[in-house]
Amino acid sequence: MNSVNLDFAEELKEYSDDTAFECFNCGTCAAICPLVHDNFPRRMIRYIQVGAKEKILENSDELWRCLHCGLCTHTCPREADPGEIILGLKRFVLANWRKS
Amino acid sequence: MINKDKEAKKTAMKELRGLRKSLIASASSTMKIQKKDIAAIKAFLKGGAATIPEIAAGIDMPTDKALWYMATLKKYGQIVEVQKEGAFFKYTLSEQEKNYEKAEA
Amino acid sequence: MSPQAKKEQNKILILATETCAYPGADSVGQAHSTYPANTYILRVRAPVLFPESFYIDCFKKGISGIIVMSCGEECPYEGAYKALAKRLDSVYKKMKKMEIDIKRLRLTAICTVCNRAFLNEVKQMDQLIREIGPPQLMV
Amino acid sequence: MSEKNQNVGVYICYCGGNISDHVDVEEVRNRVEKMPGVALARTEMFMCSDPGQEMIIEDLKSGKIDRVVVASCAPSLHETTFRDAINRAGSNPFIYEHANIREQVSWVHHGDTATDKASVLIASATAKAKQLKPLDPIRVEAKKHTTIIGGGIAGIKAALDIAQTGIDVTLVEKSPILGGQLNNLDRLAPSGEKASEVLQELLDQVLNHKGITIHTDCKIQDVTGYVGNFSLDIVTKSDNKKLTIDTGAIVMATGSVSYMPFEGEYGFGRHEQVITLKDLIPILKENKSAGSVLKVNGKTIKNMVMIHCVGSRQIPGIHQPKENGQLNEYCSRTCCAAMLNVSNQIRENFPETGIYEMYRDIRTYGRGQEELYNQASKNKVIFMRYEADAQPEIIPSPKPDYPLQVKIKDSLTFNEEMEIPADLVVLATGIEPDDVSGLASMLKLPIGTDKFLLEVHPKLRPVEFPITGVFLAGTCQAPMDTGEACNAAGAAAVKASALLSKGYIELDPFVAEVDTDKCQGHGACVEACLKEGALELIEVNIEGKIHKKARVTAALCLGCGACAAVCPEKAIDINGWALKQYEDMVDAIVSDGFTV
Amino acid sequence: MFNPRDIIEVLAANVRQTKSPFGIPKYMVNTWFKDLRLPKEGEYLLFTGLMYQFSPFIETATQYLEKYEDTETAGYLKYAKWVPGYISGIGLAMMTKRKEKRKAGQLLKNIAYLLHKSKVNFGYRPDLDNYSGILLYDMGDQKGFVAHAKKVAQKLKNAGIKKIITIDPHTAYALKELFPKYTGISFDVKPYFELLNFEPKDCGLEVTLHDPCFFGRYLKASDITRKQLANMGISVTNIRNQGEFTSCCGGPAESISPSLSNEILEKRVKELGEPGKPIIAYCPICLGNLKKSNADVEDLSTLLARHA
Amino acid sequence: MIPTDIFNFDTLVVGGGIAGLQTALDLGDQGYKVAVVEKDASIGGKMIRLSKVFPTLDCASCITTPKMSAVAHHENITLFTYCELNSLDYDGSGEFQGMKALITQKPRYVDPVKCIGCRQCEYVCPVHIPDMEQGGLSATKAISIPFSNAIPQLPIMDIENCMLCGQCEKACPTNAIDYLQKPEEFLIASKTAVVTTGFDLLPVKDNTQYGNGKIPNVIDSLQMERLLAPHGPYNRVLRPSDGMEPDSIAYVQCAGSRDKSMGVSYCSRVCCMYAIKQAMLLSGSLPLADITIYYMDIRAFGKGYEQFYQNAKAMGIEFIKAKVARIDRGENGSAQVRYELQDGSGTATANHDLVVLSMGMVPGWNPEQPVCPVSKDTDQFITSIKPKISPVLTDMDGLFVAGAAAGPKDIVDTITESGSAAMEAAKFMSKSLMEN
Q1: Does D377 touch chain A (CB under 8 A)?
Q2: What domains lie within chain F, and their CATH numbers?
Q3: What is the ipTM score, two decimals?
Q4: C134 forms bridges with which residues in the sheet?
């Protein structure tokens, strides 16, 4: 059972624009991604939406499999810019690592 | 009077032919290819009913094109669909077409 | 009348609704699809007009088969289709009693572009009456 | 039918080869010419051409013929052409019969069989033609007046539309005020107009229109009559005043109500923090409080959950039916946009109030609605999706800072179970039709399985009932939003206007007619009649004796012929499509044209 | 797969210490201009961002990494950051073949030649030509990137540079999009192929163009290259994944997972190979990576220089 | 050039699809004189080209044909088919104040008065051209009647593909062929106008994600309508690449709709329902085939629609919540769709014998200055200035809009809206009557 974290979005703002909320979870990004086939990047975006910070940190290695090729951003129906969101998460996670 | 009209029409048609020269040329070359293709399909079908892939392989034509002709010839009553074989239907010359062929011969 | 005119004994009567089946038959014509010529199509508003006796009389007169081509449930006359279906049920009962093969009477729904269904119906009825011949009820 | 011999003129078309290539047209003419009753038979290259038509007109004018058969293409193409020609000759257009020898002969049969069949079809058409008689359209006087039942947005719009074309209107509303559901709404989705302003704009016009009479707080007690001549008895609820309205047409615009959740449905009635969208809207309307967080009943709403599809899209076996067994299987169409609209308002005015929307499918189908959904996402409304068989659960919160907790198996989060704390849970309750069963049975209006009023056909006649002269508009038919209800009202209004614009109504002449001499008053026809009121038994005094006779009300008769089939005396038949005609046609067919 | 955290820290430390992600001192890498007499001043400054120069070293590094991916040794990589950048970098430099280095240099010489032939007024200042820091940005080391970018941009600004010619898509993106956003310093940035201007001719060639992600999608520059080629009479066969819809070559994955990189490369080569024409790249990373596949690949500048 | 022919009407209806026909009938029935201008060779619009229609599943032709013929025979309605609208604007300058429309009658190269619709010309014509009425899946001739129930029954000569061989002229029994026909311009002056110009589908060729129309057996939904229609190209459902009866068919929803990257951000409103309808028809004609619908949200919002959707589910049609990200060429003529498994188990590819793209809807006509000054919304459909009180009102006095010209719309809503537009036009005319 997961409780949503209402404040995570605020925490992330420092690292990224909050376009993650524009995502309507269609899954195009996950299916178009040439690199990662494991619901990535939507899984990460959804975790941002529901504030699942721990899940993001747990799965953070996945972020660096993204090469920023931009195909997800290019095909996103909502223009939520998944590519930039992942870049933002890299920053967030790296900052977290460095803090610890 | 009638002759005069006829003359006028003749001149106008000549003019039109000049104007549409390239269109007419491309249409007639299209028509010639179609005529050959259709003749090939019909000749092949004289050997018995066949499916689209069989026809296409038999006369070295892409399957989608063979189907396009088939749909058309069927519409104009020259070919009929007969039984099904696997996932494909077989086509054969229609009675009308067979009679026509006979008459030709 | 030329002598060759009277040669077809196996006649099929088709009662075709004005809004659906009759234009459907026209559509078959537009497609130039041939079907047996022993078919006579009557344009009707709603086949519910015909009493049981009409059908029996047709057979008595020598009609070999009747196809009622209606609009089905989409009939523009509210409730008419139900009444028609009921009517034909009792015609079937009468036919059984009179030992008329009930296959001689068919109720079907034909729409304005139901070419294939139309041709099928005609073909089946034609095959049937060619097998069993005209009804022997001549009065 | 009179027994005197009719003179039938038969005209056979070559159709420029279309017919003559397969049918020996001249041979057909030879055969037809000899048929009894045929005064003359002619052929022509194109019957539909001017010379062809002129030929018919000449023959009619000269008195050589008084019945016409044209054998050519399908009747759908040229029946009207030849009827018009006959009209031009000064004859009644209904003395005409068509033989279809192109679509049903020359295009489908070849050779001798085609020629034979063409002859037989002409023989059969001739047999019918001999039984034809002149017919006149039935004309019913109609009151240039329409009654609208229901004073919601659809009723108001319909009233205004009809009145503006010069037809008087009476608007009957059961409640004391006009406006219906719009009175309960605030900002309308998706464009955000104020419901009150939209309503006022129409009301101003309606109240000032001289052609519109308004009766509020009224009940309809009885409806009688038929198209053009209805009569409504109404009574005012407060002072029991009675009133009769004579009217030419009726528009049903009786509207809808909001679904009421049962106790315990998503915690409704058990937790005070669970309310419906309908309850929330007036709170928002009045909530003028400044500040960045929404307050409801004085309580701060930090986070709220909105649940879609409450009382809509219900599935047998999953959802609980109402006491009357009713299950709302339909989509209420308007709630998705309404919810998103409210969410946007809250997020924009009270940014510190968080919102979670739980949906099955977001149905922002209409113009500007998808943008509303997108905007809600931009406003950081968080969406969660549940399946019909796994509805969100509302329980008291285990944590002290929120009263409630909503549990959902969220398919967007990979089917994980999620828990959302909430200060408020809002249910998007669906639309249900207002109960008009009394009125419906008075007017014999059909009701669908979804309990909404049922139109004749959603595409052919979407705003009409099978009862001629009665129309429907708005949410009494199905859920719809304000714009759609107004469109429906416009469509109903145009039908009513077209019907009444002339002051009389012309009906098809193809109706049942009773041969009173033959009629024995069995009443079988009345029983068989599909249309209530079209046939009745009346008592007639013939030479001092009372006889029962059937009587047709032409304005109500459908012309289906159900009556003709059951009359033992064959005393009733359909004009233009008589049973007797068909019998003769069959005779002509079986005898290959000999007995005509 | 290597632990990304370790890799980033190595790269970040390298950039911090040597201004180069691979810890190779600039003087060892940037040598291509030495036997050319390039003007120092001009309307434009040619700014290579050193990406082409790095490419042979990256290749060597990848070969090295490939051996250790998913082995126990992979874990030791994290100690690399304790080794001063230039030591490991020099090691890398030593391992890289001279021939490869020369080839990379030739590409840059070609570009200088093309610009010169197009009468573009440009200058080259080795002192101002620095690595853009883009890899740090891509890896999420925002702080590291911004700190580095600020130094690079400030230097350019101090030198009075306004217009810049870039060569590779990553540097172009960094200068055009990221520098203004993160350093507050903007330049008029143009890729070199935008400025080329030759007499039209008809080479009668057909090629397949591999658009790099950053030029194809981010900077939407793929039409410009096509126009240039069309001008030379070189027709580009259309494939589905081109322009804004181009596919990744897998190159950037090398540092994190060489095997993933290979997997992507295989797919891309299949797409590019279908028309059966020579493949043209215009990004050093794409070029290096595509070359691994034994496909017929060369750089746009090589093709243009041969025919201009 | 000022055309000398001026026709006067009460209302000009632009577009002879179902919306235009209904509007014309509702006005004609009230006694107004109506002109219907249609750009195609026949009236009937998109609807006459459909197979069956939801949620009643009655045949589209059976509903449309009576309306077409009612319009054709209506004493108050005049049809102008195969006509291009060059401009439409309010003109208050002359004696007549109202709408003026400049129209070009495109040449059919057939004399409409002489022609009797016998199709002899079509039979003898030796040139085959793709029949766009059949989605290009079969051929017609360079001179042909567009489709069997077209109104009027007049052939059109395609001069792009005509060899001027003269065979049609020889075959014509009424000397109706006229190779020298020229376009003719004329004016229609009317008190009001109703724009019912409908919609088009986004072209598949512009959609790279779904293969730019180059992947065999990936077709659009209107082509599927033809495959399902009784008069379709094959008279049955076969896949176009080789005539195989498909065993697995997929629908890709929101292909171009609700998708800013594909150009249309709005919902096209009808695709969910027509996909479900087609799926149902398919499972009727191909009972053994697997049918899958990939969707984001099923929008079954209308009367009887939700029940229709639930029936489809019960029939075994598979609904997968996913937006297909790309389609590739598969093995043996199949097409491969790629999508995310939303339950978190990664991504998947699936092969289908036939893939139908539910392409987004865009306006069928783009009024732009100086053709017509009516305003368009951001969605490019004509702006409705009173979307609540009367969605048919535009920002031009006396000009109304109905049907898909005012945004994607299903047939039910279109017919209702057309009635509403007819009402507004009638009100406008009776108002000006009273004022004068």
Answers
A1: yes
A2: 6-106+183-198+364-435 (3.50.50.60), 202-361 (3.50.50.60)
A3: 0.90
A4: none
